[in-house]
Structures are given as C-alpha cells and as structure tokens.
C-alpha cells in the first residue's frame, strides 16, 4: 500500500466511536510530544495530515486516516501529559487497553518514543499490552537527529535488550521525521502487517 494515499476520515471522541471493526487497522501511540504527528506526516509524505505541536493535554480525539477502502491508520491521543487529571489518565489507559485487546481489525501497534527519553512506564505498558493482545509492535525511537551516532546506537541496543524480555514480535528502529531516517524500513514493516 502506498502510504501517500492516506486521507483524513474522522475524529472520534473515544474508542466506541471508531469506524466499524472491519478491514485492517494499524494504531499509533506515544507520549504527547513524542513526535507521533510528525512521524505520521513523514510516513504518509503528507505535511498537514496529522497536526503537530497541538497543545497537549486538552480534549484529545482519535484521528482516523484511510489508506485504501479497508485499510486505516489510527492516531491515538498522546498520553503522559502531566497536567491531565489522574482520573482522566486512568480512564484513558483503560480505554486503550480495551481497544488493544478487543479491536479485531487491529493488526499492529506503533509506539513512538523520543530517543532521548525512551521506555517510560506508560510506554512499557502500551508495548506490553500490544504484545499481550498478540499483535506485532513497531517501536520508533523518534528525533534520532538529536543524538550523535554512538549515543543513538547505544539507546537502540538498550531498548532492544529491554524489550527482548517480552517475547513478543517487537521491532525497534531509529526514526527522524526531520531527516527521513527510518522511513523506508518502517513502511516495510507496516506494509507487511497490512498484508497478513
Ligand atoms: P506529538 O505530540 O507526538 O504528535 O509530537 P509532534 O509531532 O507534534 O512533535 C513534537 C515536537 O517535536 C515538535 O516541536 C516537532 O517539531 C518536534 N519533532 C518531531 N519529530 C522530530 C524529529 O524527527 N526531529 C526533530 N529534531 N524534532 C522533531
């Protein structure tokens, strides 16, 4: 599938308002400010597709993009923003866990983490839930342009070693929206998922 075909479909206030559970879906998750919108724009070669640098912590919607008639990308709200009330955080975590567990068309999860601040608790949770739900997980270490070669390779090794313990299908890659680093390998993984 050519990811440049991506088009905005709808914004859903919660997981119960998503399109029907049919076809094939890939979800994108990450802490707010991890670079998720930028990565979606880079992967789809579409500058304004996902909105970058929106004020985090406000009412956040799930944005749905179509690739083809039956294939979609789902942009989940960024998590971990400090100013969100605890009760809302817990509610949202539960909704995410439910979505990962029960959404039948969901064929894979992309988790984005800033390469300088990888594997926070909530990131670990997301990855674990994805693995527990039996789906492949692609971890993109974003903003790779911010670190020197040796530093980013060290982080890559560390994250891979940590996640190897999960015994799931987890792929970890460096990514930079600024430089386009990791775009092709990520698209290869995602396309493989879409055709399973
Ligand atoms: P989101 O909240 O996860 O959707 O994050 P955004 O995509 O809005 O990015 C958050 C901030 O990080 C913005 O200021 C982006 O310009 C910056 N950013 C995102 N990706 C990159 C990248 O690959 N390299 C650099 N240097 N900055 C990036």
TrEMBL record:
Residues 22-196 form the EngB-type G domain. Pfam families: MMR_HSR1. PROSITE patterns: G_ENGB (PS51706). GO terms for cellular component: cytosol. It comes from the Bacteria. GO terms for biological process: division septum assembly. Its cofactor is Mg(2+). Keywords: Cell cycle, Cell division, GTP-binding, Magnesium, Metal-binding, Nucleotide-binding, Septation. GO terms for molecular function: GTP binding; metal ion binding. PANTHER family: ENGB-TYPE G DOMAIN-CONTAINING PROTEIN (PTHR11649:SF13), MSS1/TRME-RELATED GTP-BINDING PROTEIN (PTHR11649). Necessary for normal cell division and for the maintenance of normal septation. Belongs to the TRAFAC class TrmE-Era-EngA-EngB-Septin-like GTPase superfamily. EngB GTPase family. This is Probable GTP-binding protein EngB. It comes from Ferrimonas balearica (strain DSM 9799 / CCM 4581 / KCTC 23876 / PAT). The lineage of its organism: Bacteria, Pseudomonadati, Pseudomonadota, Gammaproteobacteria, Alteromonadales.
């Amino acid at each position: 599938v050519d990811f440049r075909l991506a088009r905005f479909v709808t914004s859903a206030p919660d997981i119960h308002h998503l399109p029907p559970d049919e076809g094939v879906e890939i979800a994108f998750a990450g802490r707010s400010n991890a670079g998720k919108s930028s990565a979606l724009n880079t992967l789809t070669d579409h500058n304004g597709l996902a909105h970058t640098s929106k004020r985090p912590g406000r009412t956040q919607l799930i944005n749905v993009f179509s690739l083809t008639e039956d294939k979609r990308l789902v942009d989940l709200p960024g998590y971990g923003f400090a100013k969100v009330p605890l009760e809302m955080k817990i509610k949202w975590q539960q909704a995410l866990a439910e979505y990962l567990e029960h959404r039948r068309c969901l064929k894979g999860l992309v988790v984005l983490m800033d390469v300088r601040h990888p594997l926070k608790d909530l990131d670990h949770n997301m990855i674990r839930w994805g693995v527990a739900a039996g789906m492949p997980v692609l971890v993109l270490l974003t903003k790779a342009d911010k670190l020197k070669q040796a530093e980013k390779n060290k982080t890559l090794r560390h994250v891979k070693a940590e996640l190897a313990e999960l015994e799931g299908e987890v792929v970890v890659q460096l990514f930079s929206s600024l430089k386009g680093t990791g775009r092709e390998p990520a698209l290869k993984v995602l396309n493989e998922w879409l055709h399973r």
